[in-house]
Amino acid sequence: MLSIDNLDVSIGNINILKSVTFKVSKFSSIIGRNGAGKTTLIRAIMSILPNDSGNIKFKDTVLTDIKTFEMSKIGIGYMPEDRRLITDLSVKDNILIPLWTLSLKKNDINYELEKILAFIPEIKEFLFRDAFQLSGGQQKLVSLARAMIVGKNLLLLDEPFEGVAPALAERLVELISELNELNMVTMITESDESFSKKINAEIIRIERGQII
Ligand code: ATP
Question: Domain containing 175: what range?
Fold first, then answer.
């Protein structure tokens, strides 16, 4: 279970998240308008942003004690809203990046990659292209794959449906709904609840940095 308790986060000297408290045990969606604080919340969970006060725990691990690059070791994967692929690396290398911290053997790395490609087979078509050659939608899929390859316990997907063409949005609904069947915690964000309802996520609302 992901549990957030009285979390305050500031950017510069502006307090963005205010006493954020909630628990998530399965499949949930943080809904809030632009600027409500969704990305700030996910970045705080990933230790990309420091907290002013409060606690973030996943199972028994205090996440604020863990560095971002160590999140993969405890099975936490993150898909940023703006994808953040390394554009001059191949798609394959981009997907494998989070595994670098795990010191896996080559066979195990191949096994993990094969599992992801079985889940999102369309990536096979462009696996060896450089990421800059992909469309925005294809980059979204690669970013999801990169999060999934390590996110076996907790998967954080920031606005996965934002700005994608309708056909890809439907495909993402299908893929993310399948994640719901797995024994893991998935938390997505969305600016309204249209897709969150389709994937049957538990809805948590955020407004001006506060859970309402
Ligand atoms: P969006 O869907 O537009 O990304 P969001 O809900 O994810 O919205 P955040 O990106 O978390 O919202 O932003 C929350 C607040 O923090 C906003 O008021 C935003 O202006 C502010 N903010 C975010 N990043 C910065 C930054 N680098 N510098 C200053 N203010 C920031």
Answer: 2-211
